[in-house]
Amino acid sequence: MLAWLKYSVREAMHDQxxxxxxxxxxxxxxxxxxxxxxxxxxxxxxxxxxNATHSEIGFTPDHEWQTSKIASLYKNQNICIFIWVTxxxxxxxxxxx
Length: 97
Fold this sequence. Notes:
By secondary structure, this protein is an alpha+beta fold. Helices cover 30% and strands 37% of the residues. It has a 4-stranded mixed β-sheet with strand order 1-3-2-6. A two-stranded antiparallel ribbon has the order 4-5. The radius of gyration is 14 Å and the shape is globular. The chain starts with a strand and ends in a 9-residue tail after the last strand.
């Protein structure tokens, strides 16, 4: 499977990981299938939310905030949720050239 990641999503993931380090964080990646089950385009990220809790062994998202944010993105941009990400740490992500 090939995944295309919008640069702003990559930056948001990196920023969240740095902000919460050494604790875990996470959120939802949102996008759409360019080719069903073969190629996905990740165009949005919904972070943990303002009332999420973070620790060294996990995190609990602010479910109410995330649900509201996802519903708004779906209504306004018609994007679907395709993956849930938990336990984001500092990542080394190399851009595809």
